[in-house]
């Protein structure tokens, strides 16, 4: 069976007044993919996500999300999608447990048709690392805890497709690590498709199988971190100690250099480190290239 | 739809429970009840006519003002506030979120109305020594008009909440507007005694007619002479309030869907920044 794409976008255009925010965007997401949408501020990341979520009407373009046009899709479609927006301040007077229970019941009528039962609240709180806060008032949560609650709300209906707009803002390193594990688990075990935006490039490299870079309303790159690295002239950094003296060399193709280095019999090579170009370097090179145009 | 309303009902009860545990909300209701008690106490010996306590004129006004305060002003403030803090947008991210949200707000409002009307009538009963001057038909009129009035004013709470953008201006100016509306609707002094140019305004609004029907029930038939048309017009009262109810019920869901559709995270963030600068 050829699986239909989860998200398919052709020629998406969007303008606010005279300013063109999205200028003809094409991409597709397949089932189980984790894709990071990167780009400078104002590149149109949030707008793209809001169009896919059905919150904004695009000016032009053909958009299919789970087989339907987001702006006209109904509640059964909505039940298959999880949304975590950039900032939430709602339901401050509620307690964490009752709020999640309330939202979970909204998915029950659709469980039969989607085949996905809403999460058990205790399990879900454990999953996002809030198990000790079930009775806490939402407004008493710290920024990072509030963000984890937002992620929990996005996950409560066990969505097939999850949108995350800057999900880890305000997370401490431990929470961030746990969140990355959670995303891996979602895509591996639940076959959830995830589209996220982030400014943290190390995060994108770690959790996303594919990267989309959006700049000035167009997609300037689409591929795995390794594929993107090959697309820009780049070099790996090789460092080692030669008879106790530190040496650094930069090479586009690291392997022949390292082989040659280790074949030398006249010196003792220790502490050899080969560091491939990071996504951050690739990203900066790509954005700089666009700026130079 | 039934499941959405049921979920909304539970949601509204939770919201009301939160309200009951929030000191400022409870104090607001208590102050209102104390004011009712003070007004009725001050006029405890006054009579509208021989054998008819003035309280029978005041009580319908109190009930009508409470109705517009809770179903119109209070509900409108809730909706405009929850538009700003993203509750409405959150409802859009959930399946059937908007009907659940709306029925939750209505449930909470109804609970507040019951928790205001019942103590108000209890206070009045104590001060009047249990004498309400209502026979069975009168009682039916009072209950029917309170229900129809709720049906007419609740949708306009949603209209207020969707037309205005700024929660602080709604809660501030709204107080004043409710006061003016109460005055031009003859709830403070009889509409017939107000300037002639004010009267059509009062007659077009539902508040005069809600108050009129309630007064007609509480007061003896001959006091209808003090009304604008010189008599009790129950049919007309139910017709006017009914038209307002139908108009509101047609308008409110459309407006709510419309503003909910326009809410976006970036828009809410912009307003949050603006609110922070004002503070």
UniProtKB/TrEMBL annotation, chain A:
<protein>
    <submittedName>
        <fullName>ABC transporter ATP-binding protein</fullName>
    </submittedName>
</protein>
<dbReference type="GO" id="GO:0005524">
    <property type="term" value="F:ATP binding"/>
</dbReference>
<keyword id="KW-0813">Transport</keyword>
<dbReference type="InterPro" id="IPR017871">
    <property type="entry name" value="ABC_transporter-like_CS"/>
</dbReference>
<feature type="domain" description="ABC transporter">
    <location>
        <begin position="7"/>
        <end position="241"/>
    </location>
</feature>
<dbReference type="InterPro" id="IPR027417">
    <property type="entry name" value="P-loop_NTPase"/>
</dbReference>
<dbReference type="InterPro" id="IPR003593">
    <property type="entry name" value="AAA+_ATPase"/>
</dbReference>
<dbReference type="Pfam" id="PF00005">
    <property type="entry name" value="ABC_tran"/>
</dbReference>
<keyword id="KW-0547">Nucleotide-binding</keyword>
<dbReference type="InterPro" id="IPR050763">
    <property type="entry name" value="ABC_transporter_ATP-binding"/>
</dbReference>
<keyword id="KW-0067">ATP-binding</keyword>
<dbReference type="InterPro" id="IPR003439">
    <property type="entry name" value="ABC_transporter-like_ATP-bd"/>
</dbReference>
<keyword id="KW-0046">Antibiotic resistance</keyword>
From TrEMBL, chain B:
<keyword id="KW-0472">Membrane</keyword>
<keyword id="KW-0812">Transmembrane</keyword>
<dbReference type="InterPro" id="IPR051784">
    <property type="entry name" value="Nod_factor_ABC_transporter"/>
</dbReference>
<dbReference type="InterPro" id="IPR013525">
    <property type="entry name" value="ABC2_TM"/>
</dbReference>
<feature type="transmembrane region" description="Helical">
    <location>
        <begin position="232"/>
        <end position="252"/>
    </location>
</feature>
<feature type="transmembrane region" description="Helical">
    <location>
        <begin position="55"/>
        <end position="80"/>
    </location>
</feature>
<feature type="transmembrane region" description="Helical">
    <location>
        <begin position="100"/>
        <end position="127"/>
    </location>
</feature>
<dbReference type="Pfam" id="PF01061">
    <property type="entry name" value="ABC2_membrane"/>
</dbReference>
<feature type="transmembrane region" description="Helical">
    <location>
        <begin position="26"/>
        <end position="43"/>
    </location>
</feature>
<keyword id="KW-1133">Transmembrane helix</keyword>
<feature type="transmembrane region" description="Helical">
    <location>
        <begin position="173"/>
        <end position="198"/>
    </location>
</feature>
<feature type="domain" description="ABC-2 type transporter transmembrane">
    <location>
        <begin position="26"/>
        <end position="218"/>
    </location>
</feature>
<feature type="transmembrane region" description="Helical">
    <location>
        <begin position="139"/>
        <end position="161"/>
    </location>
</feature>
<protein>
    <submittedName>
        <fullName>ABC transporter permease</fullName>
    </submittedName>
</protein>
């Amino acid at each position: 069976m050829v699986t239909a794409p989860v998200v398919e976008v052709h020629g998406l255009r969007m303008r606010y007044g005279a300013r063109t925010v999205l200028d003809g965007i094409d991409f597709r997401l397949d089932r189980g993919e984790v894709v990071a949408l990167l780009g400078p501020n104002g590149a149109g990341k949030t707008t793209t996500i809001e169009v896919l979520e059905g919150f904004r009407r695009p000016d032009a373009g053909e958009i299919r999300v789970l087989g339907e046009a987001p702006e006209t899709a109904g509640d059964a479609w909505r039940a298959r999608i999880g949304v975590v927006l950039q900032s939430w301040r709602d339901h401050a007077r509620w307690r964490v447990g009752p709020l999640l229970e309330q939202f979970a019941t909204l998915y029950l009528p659709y469980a039969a048709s989607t085949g996905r039962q809403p999460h058990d609240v205790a399990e879900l709180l454990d999953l996002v690392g809030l198990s000790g806060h079930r009775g806490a008032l939402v407004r008493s949560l710290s920024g990072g805890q509030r963000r984890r609650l937002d992620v929990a709300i996005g996950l409560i209906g066990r969505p097939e497709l999850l949108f995350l707009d800057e999900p880890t803002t305000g997370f401490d390193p431990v929470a961030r690590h746990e969140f990355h594990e959670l995303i891996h688990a979602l895509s591996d075990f639940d076959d959830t498709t995830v589209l996220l935006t982030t400014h943290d490039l190390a995060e994108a490299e770690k959790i996303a199988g594919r990267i989309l870079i959006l700049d000035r309303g167009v997609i300037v790159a689409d591929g795995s971190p390794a594929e993107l690295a090959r697309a820009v002239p780049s070099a790996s950094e090789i460092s080692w100690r030669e008879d106790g003296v530190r040496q650094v060399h930069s090479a586009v193709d690291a392997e022949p250099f390292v082989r040659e280095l280790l074949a030398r019999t006249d010196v003792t090579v220790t502490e050899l480190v080969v560091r491939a170009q990071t996504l951050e370097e690739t990203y900066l090179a790509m954005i700089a290239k666009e700026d130079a145009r | 739809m039934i499941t959405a309303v049921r979920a909304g009902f539970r949601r509204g009860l939770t919201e009301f429970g939160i309200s009951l545990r929030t000191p400022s909300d409870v104090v607001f209701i208590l102050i209102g009840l104390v004011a009712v008690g003070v007004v009725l106490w001050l006029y405890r010996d006054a009579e509208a006519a021989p054998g008819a306590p003035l309280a029978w004129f005041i009580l319908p006004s109190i009930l009508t003002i409470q109705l517009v305060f809770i179903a119109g002003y209070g509900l409108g403030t809730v909706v405009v506030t929850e538009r700003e803090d993203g509750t409405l947008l959150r409802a859009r991210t959930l399946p059937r979120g908007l009907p659940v949200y709306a029925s939750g707000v209505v449930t909470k409002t109804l609970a507040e109305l019951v928790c205001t009307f019942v103590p108000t009538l209890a206070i009045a009963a104590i001060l009047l020594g249990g004498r309400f001057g209502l026979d069975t038909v009168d009682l039916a009129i009072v209950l029917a008009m309170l229900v129809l009035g709720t049906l007419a004013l609740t949708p306009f709470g949603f209209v207020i909440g969707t037309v205005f953008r700024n929660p602080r201006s709604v809660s501030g100016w709204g107080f004043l507007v409710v006061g003016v509306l109460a005055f031009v609707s003859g709830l403070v002094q009889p509409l017939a005694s107000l300037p002639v140019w004010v009267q059509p305004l009062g007659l077009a609004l539902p508040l005069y007619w809600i108050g009129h029907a309630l007064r007609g029930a509480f007061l003896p038939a001959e006091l209808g002479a003090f009304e604008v048309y010189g008599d009790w017009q129950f049919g007309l009262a139910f017709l006017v309030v009914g038209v307002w109810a139908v108009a509101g019920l047609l308008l409110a869901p459309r407006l709510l869907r419309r503003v909910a559709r326009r809410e976006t995270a970036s828009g809410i963030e912009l307003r949050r920044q603006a609110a922070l600068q004002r503070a």
